[in-house]
Amino acid sequence: MTVRIKRVYDMPEPSDGVRILVDRLWPRGMAKEKARIDLWLKDISPSDDLRRRFHARPESWDEFRTLYAAELEGEAEQVALAELERHIAQGPVTLLYAARDERHNNAAALKMWLEEKALKPTEGG
């Protein structure tokens, strides 16, 4: 599984593979042509409520990750996750985000969740 995260404002590179925006809102001031986004998965992003709560309290990173993981179990999220997993299986994927904090953002939380999920043994195996 090759999944990277990158700020949408950083220059696209060939090594990015499929570039997937995982924010609910379009990045401020970013032209679609310049962003070179292959796919926008709004449904995989945190809810507006959770996004606002975390923005107001960035020190609540662990709580944010836990609540976001719970949201990823929703029906709409499952469709988006299935599409994301198809792209991951085909080659490198870069999850794009707009936040300034490179370590504490929804793309980082999603990547960590995907990695933790991949490490869990499947039932019966």
From TrEMBL:
It holds the Pfam family DUF488-N3i. This is Uncharacterized protein YeaO (DUF488 family). It comes from the Bacteria. It comes from Mycoplana azooxidifex.
